[in-house]
Every structure is written in structure tokens, then in C-alpha cells.
């Protein structure tokens, strides 16, 4: 029996007669990078919002390490170790790179986001923060104002901050969206690097990113699971190619 970290059972979300997520059953295995893909409007982000409890499911169940967390609040979900990195870079622009990571590190201390902590107390986190910045190749930017970082580096900082919260499961929402080729490559390598010993569930549009790092892929269409499997299985599935209407099907094949 595979070690399943996160499981959804017939997860459904309806908005005034419109079904955005329709009986979605997923199993995310420990240590895997699991990608959620699908055309625009397929329900991927709604699915993420249900998992992090920003939305309440209409029906169905969510289990984390076998425990039912369907009715848990967003803060409880985060405390249990499900940490989400947002589609739009969620960092504090007018703090330094090091200060941003330090804020993420405060959560395990129980002083969640206590900006008023004494400098001395926060300085104790500096070594740990620098260690995280080294993991994401940002140590030389430690004293840079975050607002001055290039876009791809901001996403790397966001991953470092997420790591500071010690996630058991990282949810990455479009980690390479809006990036140039060089940044896409850097962030893809970074995700691969930080996935060691962790579980990642990611929504991603870039097929070459998914081909390079995913262990398993679930394809959503109109809120339902259309196909699931390895990249090879999914990319050669005629229904998946049809769902992407030829254009992305080409990208699916071209990304081998």
C-alpha cells in the first residue's frame, strides 16, 4: 500500500448551480512531486482553495495522513504542515530578503509574525534563515530589498519562506508563471532540489516543467479528473490531447 499523504474523496464544490470541482478523488504519495494540470477553467485553483480551506467543499472529504481535515480552518491546516505558495509572489516588498525568511521562521517558535519581537531575539534566526537562502541560491541577496529582486528570484524567496514554515506538504500554485526561460529553468531546478524528503503538489501550465520533475500527474477538465498517471501515460492519452485542443497537445508531445 502506497504511503498517501493527502487524499481527496469525491471532492465537490458548487457555486450557485455551477460545479467548479466535480467528484475529484486524488491520492498524493509521500515524497512525490504531483502535478495538477488542465485547460483554463478546469478547476485547478478551486481545488487548491479547497485543500487549504480558503473555500469550503460542498461535499466530499479531504484526508491528511489519514486524518479527516475537511472541516479544519485554514490556520489549523497550516499548523498541520500543509503550506501553500501563492500564484502571485507573496513576500513583503519593503523588507530585506533575509527579513522575509525570518518572518517565515517565526511560526515554529510560536510567535507567528510578531514584528515587534526584539531584534536580538530575531537575530537568533539569522543562521537558520541564511541556511534557507543558501538552499535557494539567494544568500548573496540577503540584504537586498525584496522589491528590487528580479521576478524569478522573488519566487525563489517565496519558496525559501515556505520552507521556513517546515511544510510536510508544499502546494505550489503556478510556480513558473510569467517567467522568462532562464528563470523557469532556475525555479524548476530549485523545486527539484527542495523536493528531497518532501511532498509537493503543484498546479503548473508549463508542460516542459511538468515533464522534467513530476512523478505523477492528474489532469482536470471541467472540474473532474480526466486522466492520471506518469507524464508518458498522460501525454499520450487521446482525451488529454483533445482537451488541450491540439495546441497544447503539441506542447505535450514536444516536451518529452
Give the structure's gist in a few sentences.
By secondary structure, the chain is of the alpha/beta class.
Description:
The chain is an alpha/beta fold and 256 residues long. The chain folds into two domains: 1-70 and 169-176 and 197-256, Rossmann fold (3-Layer(aba) Sandwich), CATH 3.40.50.300; 82-166, 3-Layer(aba) Sandwich (Rossmann fold), CATH 3.40.50. It contains eleven helices and ten strands. It has a six-stranded mixed sheet, with helices on both faces. It has a four-stranded antiparallel sheet with strand order 2-1-4-5, covered by helices on one side. Strand 4 (59-64) and strand 5 (67-68) form a beta hairpin. The model has no long low-confidence stretch (mean pLDDT 87).
Radius of gyration, CA atoms, in whole angstroms = 19 Å
Sheet with most strands: strand arrangement: 6-7-8-3-9-10
Total strands: 10
One letter per element, helices H and strands E, the order comes to EEEHEEHEHHHHEHEHEEHHH
Q: Any idea how many domains? A: 2
What is the fourth-level CATH superfamily of the largest domain? P-loop containing nucleotide triphosphate hydrolases
What's the CATH C level of the largest domain? Alpha Beta
Q: Unreliable stretches, pLDDT < 50, 5 or more residues?
A: none
CATH topology description of the largest domain: Rossmann fold
